[in-house]
C-alpha cells in the first residue's frame, strides 16, 4: 500500500522556502507552460503524441500540497492544475496569476541563519543570533548562573530534537551545545546551508533547512513530476500534476 503523503504546515513551508517564493492560491488562475515543465521532467516528454498542445494553457489551481523531501528536508510543492476550457485569458480577472485580492495572513515569527564553518563542525555548537534567541526561543532566566535551558524543536517531519541553549562566554553570546552535533550529523549539514527556526501559532518551536545550491553547471535539474493524463477533465488537455522544487 502506498504510504500516505505527509502535508506540511503552510507557514513552516513558507519559512523554509524563503521570502522570494510565492505560491498561487487555490481557485486562482495561472498560465501553465507545458514545454517549460517538460524541460524539467524526469524523462523525455514526446510532444509528437499531442501535437496540438499550445505553448501556454490557462488553468485554475485545484489544490496545493506543501511537502518536504524525507531525506533532505528540502521543501517542495505539489500543485494540481485544471485547464479552463474555451475561456479566453481575462487579464482583468483578479484571480489571474494567483492574486485574488485577499490579504495575506500574518506571518509567524521566524529566523534563518546561514551556517558558518564553526556552526557545521562536528562536535561544535551553534552560535544563535540574539534576535532569534530573544524572539523565537523561550525566554532565558538571566538571573541564573549560567542562564541555560533545554530547547525542544520539531522538524518538518514531526521529529523532536532537543538542544541545550546557554548564554555564556566573554563577551556573552547565545549557543546551542548538547544535541546540536547530532542534528548536524543526521541532517548532513555543511557550511553554507541555512537553518530556519519558526515559532508556530500554537507555540511550537519548529526547525527547517535550506540546502546550499550544489552541483556543476549542466548537471541534472531538480526533479519535477509530469502527468499529462491525470484527472477527469472535459478539456482536450486533461489535467496536470505539477511538482515544484527549489
UniProtKB/TrEMBL annotation:
Gene3D superfamilies registered for this protein in UniProt: DNA-binding pseudobarrel domain
- The primary site where this protein sits is nucleus
Q: Which organism is it from?
A: Davidia involucrata (Dove tree)
Matching InterPro entries, A to Z? ARF_plant (IPR044835), B3_DNA-bd (IPR003340), DNA-bd_pseudobarrel_sf (IPR015300)
Q: Where is the TF-B3 domain?
A: 111-213
Give coiled-coil spans as residue ranges: none
Where in the cell? Nucleus
Q: Name one GO biological process term.
A: regulation of DNA-templated transcription
Keyword Aminoacyl-tRNA synthetase in record: no
Family indicated by similarity: Belongs to the ARF family.
Protein name per Swiss-Prot or TrEMBL? Putative auxin response factor 18-like
Alphabetized, the UniProt keywords read: Auxin signaling pathway, DNA-binding, Nucleus, Transcription, Transcription regulation
Please give the superkingdom of this protein's source: Eukaryota
**Mind naming one GO cellular-component term on file for this protein?**
nucleus
**Gene Ontology molecular function terms on file:** DNA binding
Amino acid at each position: 500500500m502506498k504510504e500516505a503523503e505527509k502535508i506540511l504546515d503552510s507557514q513552516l513551508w513558507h519559512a523554509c522556502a524563503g521570502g522570494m517564493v510565492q505560491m498561487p492560491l487555490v481557485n486562482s488562475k495561472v498560465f501553465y507552460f507545458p514545454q517549460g515543465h517538460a524541460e524539467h521532467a524526469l524523462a523525455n516528454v514526446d510532444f509528437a503524441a499531442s501535437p496540438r498542445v499550445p505553448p501556454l494553457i490557462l488553468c485554475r489551481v485545484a489544490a496545493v500540497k506543501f511537502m518536504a523531501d524525507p531525506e533532505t528536508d528540502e521543501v517542495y510543492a505539489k500543485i494540481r492544475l485544471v485547464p479552463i476550457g474555451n475561456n479566453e485569458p481575462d487579464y482583468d480577472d483578479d484571480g489571474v496569476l494567483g492574486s485574488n485580492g485577499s490579504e495575506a495572513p500574518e506571518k509567524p515569527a521566524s529566523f534563518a541563519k546561514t551556517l558558518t564553518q564553526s556552526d557545521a563542525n562536528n562536535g561544535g555548537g551553534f552560535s544563535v543570533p540574539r534576535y532569534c534567541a530573544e524572539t523565537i526561543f523561550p525566554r532565558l532566566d538571566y538571573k541564573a548562573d549560567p542562564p541555560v535551558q533545554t530547547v525542544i524543536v520539531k522538524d518538518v517531519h514531526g521529529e523532536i530534537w532537543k538542544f541545550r541553549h546557554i548564554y555564556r562566554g566573554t563577551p556573552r553570546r547565545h549557543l546551542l551545545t548538547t544535541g546540536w552535533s547530532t542534528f548536524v550529523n543526521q541532517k548532513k549539514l555543511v557550511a553554507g546551508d541555512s537553518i530556519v527556526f519558526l515559532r508556530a501559532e500554537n507555540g511550537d518551536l519548529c526547525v527547517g533547512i535550506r540546502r546550499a545550491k550544489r552541483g556543476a553547471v549542466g548537471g541534472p535539474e531538480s526533479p519535477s513530476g509530469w502527468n499529462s493524463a491525470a484527472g477527469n477533465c472535459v478539456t482536450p488537455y486533461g489535467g496536470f500534476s505539477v511538482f515544484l522544487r527549489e
